[in-house]
Amino acid sequence: MNVLWVLAHPEQRSLAGALHADGVATLRAAGHTVEVDDLYAMKWKAVLDAEDYPEVEPASVLEASGEAYARGRLSPDILAEHEKIARADAIVLQFPLWWFGMPAILKGWFDRVFVRGYAYDMPDPDRPGHTMRYGRGNLAGRRALVVVTTGAGAEPFGPRGIHGDLDEVLFPLLHGTLWYAGIAALPPVAIHGTSAYGESEHAAAIELLRARLGDLATTEPIPYRLQGPDDYDRDLALHPELAPGRTGLSVHRR
């Protein structure tokens, strides 16, 4: 497999740095090709602005990104990321959970790279007047593994934990970003309680990630529902006969 590893952590001497180094080595030892985006080392520009769309002046960011993509006028760093994604069968996204979300530099990677016409808002050839999203689109066929570290232990991120179930905390990324753009998200790798890690916990985290990377090509993705008339009505609400009487984010899983 060709793997793109996107790392969003500022400290290479941390547990996250060790996980990243060992994970990349593990994939390469297994015969996979790995490209690395170390966003902090790259000094990735996280803020979307007019420089992303040179020579394009539509009225809105949405229009500007779509026109720049269609005309091949995106900034060179964005085009380089598109080339890396085109080569990738799988994407590993590694980051610490900060304020219940991604670090700003990784959010900015998505903001700038996932432009209109490339990651969303592509006309659906099978359904005139509709666009391809939630499981379909240009990026369909790829899989993504999220590797996240948290300072809190596992219980606070459990089903009854005060922080909320981690799958729901990550729903905006797993479903609202990756699956929206057609990328199948695998169950995430969560390394909890890292602020209190000793040598044994460090070794266990390394082994957990090695095991999950060993199954990168075969792990079943999270079974999110495809957008379409089989599951959703014209207002994009789940049909009442599906998951009857239930609400919440879990209803969007098959």
UniProtKB/TrEMBL annotation:
Main EC class the enzyme belongs to: oxidoreductase
Stored InterPro entries: Flavodoxin_fold (IPR003680), Flavoprotein-like_sf (IPR029039), NAD(P)H_dehydrogenase_qn (IPR051545)
One Pfam family from the record: Flavodoxin_2
Alphabetized UniProt keyword annotations: Oxidoreductase
GO cellular component: a single term: cytosol
Single annotated GO MF: NAD(P)H dehydrogenase (quinone) activity
Keyword Oxidoreductase: yes
Catalytic activity, EC: 1.6.5.2
Annotated Flavodoxin-like fold domain residues: 1-212
Family, similarity comment: Belongs to the NAD(P)H dehydrogenase (quinone) family.
Record-given protein name: Glutathione-regulated potassium-efflux system ancillary protein KefF
Biological source species: Occultella aeris
